[in-house]
Amino acid sequence: MFQCFDAQASGYKQPSESIAEFVNVYDVPDALVSPKGRWMALLDNKDAAQFGAVQNQHLLGIDFIPASSMHADIPRYLGLTFKHIDTGAVIRPSAIPEGNILHPSWSANGRYLAFVLETEQAAHLWVYDIKQKKTRILSQFPLNGFTMNKPFEWLADSSGLIANFQVNKRFTTSPRQTQNSKQQPLVVSASANLNRVTGSEFGPVQQDEFKAFALGQLYKVPLQGRANAIGEPAYFSDFSASPDATNLLVAMIDIAQLPNMNNAALTRQKYSVWQIWGMRGVPLYEVYRPQETLNIADVLSKPFSQSIIKRVFQWRADKGATLVWAESSDGDDSESLYSISAPFKRAPRLYAETEGRVSHILWGDSQLAILAMREDADTLSYHAFSPLTPDRKRVKLSLFNDLPHDSTRELIFTKNDMGVDVLKVAGGRYLFLKGSNRENGGDIPYLSRFDTRGNLFTSIWQSSAPYFEQVVDVISDDGMRFVTQKQSKNNPANYFSRNLTFDTVEQLTKNSHPYPSMQNISKEQMSFNVGGRVIEGDFYLPNSFNPSNGRIPVLVWLNAQQPQSDRKMKSPFLFTEFNAFDGAAFVHDGYAVLNINNLDLLSQQVHGEALTAHLRDSAQTIVSTLVAQGIADKDKIAIGGHGLAATNVVKLLAETDLFVTGIARSGTYNLTLTPFFFGEREHSLWSSQSQYVDNSVVFQANEVTASLLLIHGYQDREKGSYPVQSERLFSAMNDLGKSVRLVVLPQSGHLYSEQDEVLHMLYEQSQWLKLHFEPLPEVEVSDSIPQLLRFELPAPQKTVTYPSPWG
């Protein structure tokens, strides 16, 4: 029988205080240490989201947000705080409008922090003066970050910045319209296009769109004074100022070659023309124009000339304005390095000969630089040389050759006297590296020094139990003073300053525990062998559990994500993170909770009977183990999941009788409503109807004997999980006389973000589990359904006695 409690209750409900804690997001601010090592910018990325929920757009492999033209995959921050490393003083900037903070970047003198402020309408360039404690916008022009990851760059002398601004501001967000009380017709149309462009093609419409977004205007933006345009608008793909801030290297896309463009060509800048400009935009020297960009007359005039390829354009970090690049003839296996210096009147000169293909150059000081050579597609070799005598014998370095599997190693950089990013070098020969070594399945962070002459590593410091501590940045020239991020199993991450010379440690931040009620909760790793495959999970036991008092209810929660990458940091000393979206919160209601992390999900690769057998065998093994260990009451085991894991929940309720109830959030239950789930053409619904039907759990609704709580975000637009999925499954189970409840969260999408709705979700789940795990409470019974859900039920009978379906 259908049973619904509090169906007509209005407003959002809240769970208990200990469960409500789980809406707190564990977030450690990112730290950006200033070049002088005096200040640390703390960047809060908690809940940083795109304003206005603007959908990303894709053009030639660029994933960007049309309203701001910024790339979608770069970190976004919502808060900014400054911490003085020596004194502990804290500055919280004011007057920063609401928006996302992108690309925070210190000036070389450590006085200013520049950043992009992204709003619903555009992205603008801002700067904070830490000496005057003032924030201000540097230009009212919107930035253009479409063709480049970062749309601005500091001048090395800290006097200002070079930025790329938009020319075509076509895309603006219109103010939100208040909904008219009078109903309006909704009209949506689609038209067949005989000349349809496939996703892999770059047709005329996409080309015009690319031109509109890519056109930019470079400006020199001084900290004092008015911004000045540099040259004319162009389709810039890269730019870089010389160390003396007098010249500019620019790369411009030859727009005539746009019909030939593809993702790889854009990434490799195959059709970019490279020139050196003065700061007013006057071209001083054309470094390279690819053969493809020459007109037919130029090509025919030199029919027997061998094409020259130039790559890896870099300013020398130890010179005012000297450009270096790699050059080779088409088909050569090796390259030569050439250079040209201001005023760029003389012909380029040979800088050094190389064997093989150059990847890049890492500049250090006047005595040491590193040439990175491409050995193959995945391997680089590193060679130390002197920038003053580059043709002398180079030393091949074992910087990364002996790196063990699952270990990391990263070079540390600083700024030189000119304000340019360079390798941190001591004594003309020593480099500094930070990283982690994986031992016995856990990562141990470290800091080490590398002697480029002797190819020898020397350990400076490493993390020790019971803490997990990583180096953030090295402050002193000798590597003995540095900033770390430190955490333990029960203590959230905080930043510390270490001085090995005086053996002192100072705590810089004091982040409180986000889940105080979980500090004494027992947690352990569990694994289950299912047909030779290991299923892993986190197991939580309430403090009240005592085996002598008998068994307790268990909630098995299936997480939607696939197993984490092996490169994710692993350590028994990492702080335990929680969230509101798995089952851990309900340990506070007295239940044992098992969060399963790597159960297969429905996909193009795994489906049908193979998936069903895997789920059935896994569930049987998990339940049998928990019962055999004397923990689980076999009649009080529930299962829950979100997304495709919710699909697994309904599948298991239909295929087994192991669970008394299920919780399924935002799942996909009827694949015929998502006709391209398994792919295009030959794998679509119209080509493989049986596959879609066989994998749709709605067709097994009649086999579900346990009760089911369905929750869905009404704004869900995820492929395959529109709210109609839960509505139709609810309708089917209701008509079949099953015990089912549907909760629709009106403001939420696939991932619930509104705090009041997340709290209500926790409340609904808590009440649902109590209904099954505890003596049946006095509950108001109603046959009515909120009008919003649009379901019609039979007329309620005057007197109906509902037998308990749970015994």
Q: What attributes does this structure have?
A:
9 helices, 5-stranded antiparallel β-sheet, disordered N terminus, 8-stranded mixed β-sheet, globular, mainly beta, 807 residues
Rg, Å, rounded: 31 Å
Query: What's the β-strand tally?
Result: 47
Number of helices: 9
The shape is globular
Instruction: Decide which structural class fits the backbone.
Output: mainly beta
Question: Can you walk through the features of this model?
Answer:
- Helix 5 (608-628) packs across helix 6 (644-655).
- This protein is mainly beta.
- The model is unreliable at 1-9, 48-53, 171-181, 193-200, 562-567 and 776-807 (pLDDT under 50).
- It is built from 9 helices and 47 strands.
- The radius of gyration is 31 Å and the shape is globular.
How does the SSE layout of this entry go?
Blueprint lengths: L3 E2 L11 H4 L9 E4 L5 E6 L12 E3 L2 E3 L14 E6 L5 E2 L8 E7 L5 E7 L4 E7 L4 E4 L14 E3 L5 E7 L37 H11 L1 E7 L5 E7 L1 E6 L5 E7 L9 H5 L4 E7 L4 E6 L7 H6 L6 E8 L6 E8 L6 E6 L7 E5 L3 E7 L5 E6 L5 E6 L9 E3 L10 E4 L1 E3 L5 E3 L1 E2 L3 E10 L2 E10 L4 E7 L5 E7 L6 E8 L2 E9 L4 E4 L14 E9 L2 E9 L10 E7 L33 E5 L11 H21 L3 E11 L1 H12 L5 E5 L23 H6 L12 E7 L10 H12 L4 E6 L9 H19 L7 E2 L25
Parallel strand pairs: 41-42, 41-43, 43-44, 44-45, 45-46
Antiparallel strand pairs: 1-47, 2-3, 3-6, 4-5, 6-7, 8-9, 9-10, 10-11, 12-13, 13-14, 14-15, 16-17, 17-18, 18-19, 20-21, 21-22, 22-23, 24-25, 25-26, 26-27, 28-32, 29-30, 31-32, 32-33, 33-34, 35-36, 36-37, 37-38, 39-40, 40-42
Helix pairs in contact: 5-6
